Amino acid sequence: MRKSITLYGMTFSLPMAIWQVMFFLAPLVFLIALSFWSVKNFRMEPDFNPDNWTRVLGRAVFWQAYLRTVILSAVAAMVASVLAFPCSYGIAFKLSPTARRWAIFMMVIPFFTSYLVRVYSWQIFLSDNGIINAALARVGLGPFPMLNSDFGVMVGYLTLCFPLVVLLQLFSLIFVDRTLIEAAHNLQCGRLRTVFEVVMPSAKVGLVIAALFCFILTFGDFVSPLYLGGGDPPTLSILITDTTKSGQQWPRAAVIALTMIATLLCVAFAAVSYAYRERGR
Amino acid sequence: MSTEALVVFDGVIKKFGQFLAVERVDFEIRKGEFLAIMGSSGCGKTTTLRMLAGLEAPTEGEIRLAGKRINDLPTWQRDTPMVWQSLALFPFLTVRENVEFSLRMRKIEKAERQRRVDEWLERMQITEFADRNVAHLSGGQRQRVALARSLVTEPEILLLDEPLSALDAHLKVRMQTVLSNLQRELGITFVYVTHSQSEAFSMADRVVIMSRGRIEQIGNPQEIYRAPRTKFVAEFLGSSNIFSGQVTTAGNGMIRIATPAGEFDAVSGAAKALGKGDKATFVVSDDRIQLSNQRPETGNALRASVVGEEFVGATAVVHLENPAGGLELKAQKSHEELEHLDLSPGAQVWLSWRPEAAHILPGE
């Protein structure tokens, strides 16, 4: 009896475990091994050479790119969260259930089009003689350089993340206990203040997870920094492509990738433990 | 307790779309009283309370608090704290922070907040849990936190929406005592919504009984119990000896009513002046009914067959029926009084009662 239950449970958990091993653990182990290989005459050789690590981590370019990537992603996570909140709040609390279903559907639609296509179309809008500057010129403004700037990168990052951040926030806001909101009002907490005092703490898990997803997705993205940000100064993902292109330096690219993974693991762990932290004993 | 009105409901109607939740209520809540609003679910009692709290706006009519119209005053500008059925404690705050919440909203300075929170934690005997997460408390402790949170600002009125319904029977009785004592000590007006007759009758100074959006009766528990106004109230309170019929003769303070089960005499008492041919309904409380093997010589009598016997501590409740009159009857007697009777199911016995024991329902 006991054994059959175990087998039953295994049947369902096994695919997940296999997936984890095949697509996360095995590549990770390979990546770690790769980071110690040597490159001789543009050919990689298995080795145990810590040189890649010291070379990459010893370069100022790497740390500049690292800092830039972290800041860009952190800003993107913040901007997306702040812009998405009124949107998801409105959908969760002000719309009828039918209208809410439509809004959710609309949030899914952007994912139908490839991210790359959407970024290219932003170029048409943002370039110096693009649609936005042409419109501004009509009222005697501009042109404003928007392409190949951090602003452009941020536009791209929001294109990537905004609908997802809204959806993730929405799914936690929908489950906020309405009685708590009434209770706060009843205890003399005004409408706006209730949002900060009750709604946001109640939906904390969803809000933090949404911001975390935005950070993770933008941290590894290279489309926006390259096509809307101009790629210079580079982010870590651009640095990886540059490194692989220059003399088959896959091992050094692996070092960069591993530091990125380590960073994401730390950020994700910190965010999740913050999200689930309880007050009091 | 005075008779001065703190809250007045003046022709208040509440509609949700087409649904009429409160059909028109007129009543007042007196300063310092413990008022219970009682009724089965969907009777409009919670809506009535929520309108007082400012969580719903009346469709028609006027609600006045201390003489001022409050219909359009948002809940956060009223001083009408409420204790929810679910308690609605903030799970992301500690016990202390929950109690402190409304003081913080009123911008009371920190030292003063501290002092008042400490005082209320002490008063509700939850000081030791001050830094706990509310999710880790027992039902009774959570109840005390909810009370402290609402009372810490020392409001004039406290609204309670079935706050004890989630507790087990033992704890319920204990919390009833806590609530009654608290209300007496503070002199705050309590408005308590419940579907439980025992809660309402054991704590309240006055009880409002509602049914289908209307008030059926208002009065103190003894009054309501002894003299229900309508058939609904009588049935709601569990009386089953309800007789309906037509007046055949009336006069000299006596009245004779013909029902399908026979003709019975009653004292007209405070009932409205009933004349011959009028419809009338009366109840006889189950402890005022006598049971015997033979028809008694005087008084009202009715033959019925035994359905069963229910043991209630020192007394027993005998359930009977009279199919001809379509009646379900009950008599509550001590065990000695029942010794000489055959109470096996189906056995025939005589029920009798004095005319004074019949209460004519004035609202029917």
From TrEMBL, chain A:
Location(s) in or outside the cell: Cell membrane
Domain of life, source organism: Bacteria
UniProt membrane topology term: Multi-pass membrane protein
Cellular component, GO, one term: plasma membrane
UniProt KW Protein biosynthesis keyword: no
Listed Pfam families: BPD_transp_1
Record lineage: Bacteria, Pseudomonadati, Pseudomonadota, Alphaproteobacteria, Hyphomicrobiales
Keyword Cell membrane: yes
Record's protein name: ABC-type spermidine/putrescine transport system permease subunit I
Alphabetized PANTHER family for the sequence: INNER MEMBRANE ABC TRANSPORTER PERMEASE PROTEIN YDCU-RELATED, INNER MEMBRANE ABC TRANSPORTER PERMEASE PROTEIN YDCU-RELATED-RELATED
Keywords: Cell membrane, Membrane, Transmembrane, Transmembrane helix, Transport
Spans through the membrane: 12-37, 65-90, 102-120, 151-175, 195-219, 253-276
Species per Swiss-Prot/TrEMBL record: Mycoplana dimorpha
The family this protein is said to belong to: Belongs to the binding-protein-dependent transport system permease family. CysTW subfamily.
GO BP terms, alphabetized: transmembrane transport
Residues covered by the ABC transmembrane type-1 domain: 66-273
TrEMBL record, chain B:
GO terms of molecular function: ATP binding; ATP hydrolysis activity; transmembrane transporter activity
UniProt cross-references to PROSITE patterns, sorted A to Z: ABC_TRANSPORTER_1, ABC_TRANSPORTER_2
GO biological processes: putrescine transport
Pfam families named among the record's database cross-references: ABC_tran, TOBE_2
Domain ABC transporter as annotated: residue spans: 7-237
GO cellular component: ATP-binding cassette (ABC) transporter complex
Domain of life: Bacteria
Matches recorded under SUPFAM superfamilies: MOP-like, P-loop containing nucleoside triphosphate hydrolases
UniProt KW keywords: ATP-binding, Nucleotide-binding, Transport
Protein family per UniProt: Belongs to the ABC transporter superfamily.
Protein name per the record: ABC-type Fe3+/spermidine/putrescine transport system ATPase subunit
